[in-house]
Amino acid sequence: MQNLKRELGLFDVINLVVGTIVGADIYIAAAFGAGYLGPSSIFAWLIAGVMAITIALCFAECSSLLPRVGGPYAYAKEVFGNFTGFMVGWALLIASWSAIAVFPLAFVAYLLYFYPSMPQWMQILIKIVFVFFLTIINYYGVKEAGKANDILTILKLAPILLFTLFGIVYFLFNPALFISNFTPLAPLGFGGMGSALVLIFWAYVGFELVTVPSDEIKNAKKTIPKAIILGMGIITLFYLVTNLIILGSVPWVQLSQSSAPLSLAGSALLGGFGAILLTIGALFSISGSDEAGILSSARIPYAMAGDGLLPEFFARVHPKYGTPYVALYVQGLVTLLAAIFGNISQLIILSVFTLLFCYLVTCLAVFPLRKKYTGGIKLPWVVPVRGVIISLYMMTQCNLHQIMVGLLFMVLGIPVFLRYAPGKEIDYVKRDIALGRGIFARWMKVPDRFLVHFLRRLTSLIWKIRSKF
To answer: Whole-angstrom Cα distance, residue 412 to residue 421?
Structure first.
């Protein structure tokens, strides 16, 4: 089988960056900063965006030097050996499964906006059905999962874009409400900045998945850094504008107590119609993001088992559907238990803390990869140094209890490594990873990324209309 060939330009890679990161996070994370900073939480969104750009650039250099699927797991294993590679893969697994568990909780939270007296047994039942349904979609194959994501794309994007555009127009002609909700700007001071950053940073993660080999990109040395900066800049601007509208629509105290911030803001600006519109958008967006996340997370234990670092059964592929069904089963059970017994902020902090460990190792890997390989992107040395500092700073902004929980989950991986690693490598998994096929095929096809397919069609439509005039 030949490798996939494609010529990706700047626009394609920008779409890839935006499409990989933007999802349901804005529906979930919008209210987090308000409880720590009030209206000044808007600054946390900007700072988190700048931090994410710095770390994303480190990933861009690593992927250009070592163009392998697997991101931080591949870099750590190559540079620091099997144990560090395993620990990064284990941390990625914790982060991914924690993030997946957030979505059924968020799904229920938005339903509670309209049914606040929903009994606990019904909430648990909805979580079970939610996780089971999306796992089954991925169980029956990548093609079916891709179709589901395509259907959900416009439904999950349109409501928040309509809300944001309406909010801009509304506040241009009616600035009084906006000004009143931003006065005073920092009622709680800035002491909670670190805690707010940890939660808000979750909305920016995902750039570790943008590991397209540089030989598929035109003028990669210039295109990749530009695309990272422009793509992350677009995301940061989108988040800033959206949160300005949200904070301008609802008093920060009320917002900080809401588990469905977009429904609340939609109601404030557009009444019942706005609440319904944003709730429906949130439900579709949350479902779509979790559907995509389920398969991307299943590839982590699949790849680690292929490297002989996890039990062989994680690499078992369904003979008919070609999906890692055992990994999907285990993942579904673990994330369902986390969704039933955990809460949104706990799971997000655990996800971010373990991801930051992966980011830290990746930033540290830049320098040894530079010595080992040539021909990739060469960023100023200050970029990976800043990435290391940012990762360490963010990890220390979790409270002591959260740090201990994160470390405990990571330490639990050590006996797993001692029991199973290094084991026998599995050839067909290694080939799938190298060739971008099997369960990796979807993640190597740019048009199937969230938003990218939609943006391509939108751009094509605009170009056709423009050509007629």
So the answer is: 14
Using H for helix, E for strand and C for coil, what is the string for 364-427? HHHHHHHHHCCCCCCCCCHHHHHHHHHHHHHHHCCCHHHHHHHHHHHHCHHHHHHHHCCCCCCH
| CB 368 within 8 Å of CB 53 | no
- Cα-based distances in Å from 141 to 3, 145, 278, 433, 447: 21, 6, 30, 17, 17
Q: Find out whether 315 and 129 touch, Cβ atoms under 8 Å.
A: no
Residue-range domains of the chain with CATH: 10-458 (1.20.1740.10)
Looking at the chain, the whole-number percentage of residues with pLDDT higher than 70 is 80
Which token pair is 36?
A: 């720590």
CA atoms of 300 and 316, how far apart (whole Å):
13
**Residue 464: predicted pLDDT:** 59
46 vs 40: CA distance, rounded Å:
11
Geometric angle at alpha carbon 219, from 215 and 225, rounded to 5°: 95
Of 26-30, 166-170, 185-189, which gets the smallest average pLDDT? Answer: 26-30
- What is residue 157's predicted lDDT score, i.e. its pLDDT? 67
Q: How far apart are CA 401 and CA 205, in angstroms?
A: 23
Give the separation between CA 364 and CA 444, rounded to whole angstroms.
26
